[in-house]
Amino acid sequence: MKKLLLFALFFLLAENLFPQTSLQEIKPLIGISCSHPENNFSSARRTYTESVLKAGGLPILVPIIETEEDLARIISMLDGLILIGGEDVHPSYYNEEPIEELGDVNDIRDVYDLALIRLAADRKLPTFGICRGEQLINVAFGGSLYQDIPSQYEDTSVEHNQKVPSKYPTHYIDLLPGSIIATVTGETELVTNSHHHQAVKDVAPGFRVTAWSCDGIPEAIESSTGLPVWGVQFHPEAHTINGDSIMIRFFEFMTGQAVLYRNQK
Q1: Total-model pTM
Q2: Which one of 3, 39, 41, 166 is most buried, by most CB atoms within 10 A?
């Protein structure tokens, strides 16, 4: 009954917001997870929202909520979900003790993000993780992370936490032929930005690595079981808002997947 009421409310809102517009013409609703600065705010950079808009979707910020029932209600109204970057993921979620080089963590946000992933997966909601978002997807499904690449990974030939702004690409990654990332971009190699010191170590069961930096660090993962879940280690949104014609394809892909999902509801 609650679900029927929610859908009725959505269509009522749609009728008022989009008069004389069919459901097929309404832009898909793409949820964007939020960061939690100072444990007081729910926020996301405009790079994410503007990228979704440029790709034809409507960005909806999903606030930090500790009640899973309320998160579930929000997720039920979305057509897609993007998980954004942020703090380190606490290693307890992949059964490790913190090392000295672990960065800042946010317990409330870890619980919130992992709940989002679980709720989205239960509904087969198209989900795209960026940086921390990709790492969380891997952890949520049983994988592990390098807590700190410089201290835990032998090859240090790539500066994974670049000093220049995100709009500047700094290293190349190789894409797995036939993978989602290769199909979406139409490329076998990308030049990307890099703002992380953690990364996928053991890939989660039911997932596969589909891109690597030249030093072998995983740069993209996707489900190998048909679940509509994908992730990249870099930040395509930073390139997209600066006019990159390839990186916007990630968001166009998400918009297309969201439309398919909505039409199948």
Answers
A1: 0.90
A2: 166
What band does 8 get if pLDDT is binned at 50, 70 and 90?
very low
| Domains, the chain, with CATH or none | 27-264 (3.40.50.880)
131 is catalytic: yes
Which position among 36, 160, 237, 239 bears the catalytic label? 237
235 is known as an active-site residue: yes
CB 250, CB 184: distance < 8 Å: yes
131, 219, 222, 239: the catalytic one is: 131
In this predicted structure, the answer to whether residue 75 has a pLDDT above a threshold of 70 is yes
